[in-house]
Amino acid sequence: MQSQRLSILVKDLRSTTFAKEALRRQNSILRFIPKRNFIQTTTRFGIFHKGTPPPQKIVNKIKTKEEIAKEIFEKQLNSPNRFIRWGAIARSEKFTKGMTKYLIIAYVVFLVYGISIMKKQYLKEKELEKLEEKLETGGINEYETLRIKELKGKLRTRDELKLQEYERMKNEEKIDNFDGITLPNNDQNKLNKDIVPPRDTTSFYDSKAEQYDKDINFEEKAIRMGSKRKWLMRHCKGDVLEVSCGTGRNIPYLNIENINSITFLDSSKAMIDITNKKFRQKFPAFDKVAFVQGRAENLTNLASDKERVKYDTIVEAFGLCSHEDPVRALKNFSSLLKPHGRLVLLEHGRGRYSIINKILDKRSVKRLETWGCRWNLDIGEILDDSGLEIVEEKRVHWGTTWCIVAKQKGDIKKQDEVGFFEKYIGSSIKEKYENSKEG
Ligand SMILES: C[S@@+](CC[C@H](N)C(=O)[O-])C[C@H]1O[C@@H](n2cnc3c(N)ncnc32)[C@H](O)[C@@H]1O
Predict the structure, then answer these.
(1) Is the dihedral of CA 7, 8, 11, 12 positive or negative?
(2) Ligand 1 centroid – CA 104 distance (Å)
(3) Arithmetic mean of pLDDT, 428-433
């Protein structure tokens, strides 16, 4: 390195210490020249003095690490690059102190909010427990039944309308005991004039069969229906019945290893023939398969109660919308389930938003003509009327696609079907869950 001339003006003893340190860092030796009353040292950078420095010397102070860091930091604070500036602000003392304050406030708010949610949940659970006890012992009124549904988050439109009326009666007529009172049902599927009347769609699908896959492919890809079909078929295990199998659009998602036997049912012969072809192609070695032409509404008429084959899983995709009597069909499925068996549905119907429902209503006739289905039905109402118990209810595509897992009334939930709150907070349900583990 080239030698450089450098001097430090040493005014007092502290500066002397500084000069010494600077020299030590440069591996230089401090030399005292007592007679001239100043310290002069020579380094490869120059001469250091204590006392009156020679007038011609350049005075240049060496910066400490801290000073250099501070300078860089200040430059960053004023940087035109916003990311560098924000980074510097985030490291500033003012910001750090402020953040600590905000973090403490956020923590307190989170804590208070959390406690209030837990408290509300606890009170809900207590009320639910009381109402369910009353339900078991009998003597529960309609308002209380609706309240159970509300507490479980399973109110349908018609239930909301009824509850509104009960609330009005409470507030305006000061009634607080609703024993013996029942209100009109407000069935949306019956009252809505835009829902076309139910019909047997067999002949429609017989004529549609050849074109069906080609016509529906684009629509299904656009809304990524494949992932929903995958969800549906993931549930298939043991002895399986697929109702309204159509052209076998769920076959690609079937995991044959989980299955003991599978029966495909459809009212249209032309549709089920396509399923047959697809299945044989994909699983040529699997022989525990049956293809049955028949109507879901007649399923239980086919055999007496004792002779009836029962299933571990019954699945149906987009079938309820084209059945003549969807409630009857669901009741049949329920009676064909083995203990712990599950009915899994992928259906379309009314959505969560009125703007969407208006579109469905407006185009309901066109839809029926093109696809043979009633796409504006309230699926929740149909499920509630069937007497099945819903284990899982998910809705996508603005609530118009319904993903449902249901079980027979009274059947115990499986471990993986019990949610966090039910498992750890709801005492009555927790008890049921414990029982299910034993069972
Ligand atoms: C909209 S398609 C759905 C087909 C298929 N599940 C799918 O996801 O593409 C409705 C199907 O239900 C069948 N279907 C209609 N009413 C039926 C009934 N009452 N019983 C059994 N199948 C029925 C039709 O023949 C048709 O194949």
Answers:
(1) negative
(2) 58
(3) 52
Q: What are phi and psi of 286, to 5 degrees?
A: -85, 115
Tokens representing 363? Answer: 């185009």
CA–centroid distance, 201 to ligand 1, in Å, is 8
Which residues, 6+ apart, have CB-to-CB distance to 87 below 8 Å? Answer: 76
Partners of 439 in the β-ladder: none
H-state helical runs in 138-268: 142-151, 157-172, 188-191, 202-222, 225-234
Distance 220 CA to ligand 1 centre (A): 16
Q: How far is the CA of 350 from the centre of ligand 1 (A)?
A: 19
Number of H helices, E strands in the chain: 16, 11
Q: Which atom of ligand 1 is nearest to the CA of 346?
A: 8
Mean pLDDT on 197-204: 96
Confidence category of residue 438, pLDDT binned at 50, 70, 90: very low
Question: 155: how many CB neighbours lie within 10 A of its CB?
Answer: 18
Domains of the chain: 9-62 (no CATH), 96-188 (no CATH), 195-408 (3.40.50.150)
Ligand 1 pocket check: which of 205, 315, 325 to mutate, most ligand atoms within 8 Å of Cβ? 205
- Ligand 1 atom at shortest distance from the alpha carbon of 329: 19
CA 60 to chain centre: 66
> Which residue bears the tokens 């860092």?
25
Measure CA of the first residue to CA of the last residue in the chain; give whole Å. Answer: 84
Mutation to probe ligand 1, out of 322, 323, 403 (largest number of atoms < 8 A from CB): 322
